[in-house]
Amino acid sequence: MIDNLDFKNDYNPLIFYQRTYDFLKNEKELTENVLEWLYCNYSNIALDALNIIDKFKVKKVISESNQILYVIKNNKIEKFICLPDVHYCSCDKFIKQVIIQEKENMCEHLLSAVIAEKIPLKIKEINLSNEEFAKLLMSI
């Protein structure tokens, strides 16, 4: 199935992201073929995303009403909020290269949030009240 996924032929950053997101979400696990596909299509950020996951820097935050966001910590002290369902990360790279310049369709933080779902032992879940969750969202 992976061999038939040639998303770049009709390249539009948002469409490419959505197809990638749907593809990864539907994969049951992170197989060698999926990793190879990620590297071929995201060679510039795939290793960074996997490194973020490997160092346990992905936190999945779930509200009482089942809303989900991810908090990703980089190598410094910065934390970014990612919302994969709506194609958003609060990092500068996402704003500049994805939204403004349309050079990329996602950053390594967003990719790490999507991939981390396939490696449950590498992701920490945090449950918040709806009020706490809203405050976190407003801090973006």
TrEMBL record:
Keywords of the record: Metal-binding, Zinc, Zinc-finger
Domain of life (superkingdom): Eukaryota
Coiled-coil annotated spans: none
A molecular function (GO) term: zinc ion binding
Residues of the SWIM-type domain: 70-118
InterPro entries in the record: Znf_SWIM
GO terms (BP aspect): double-strand break repair via homologous recombination
Protein's name according to its UniProt entry: SWIM-type domain-containing protein
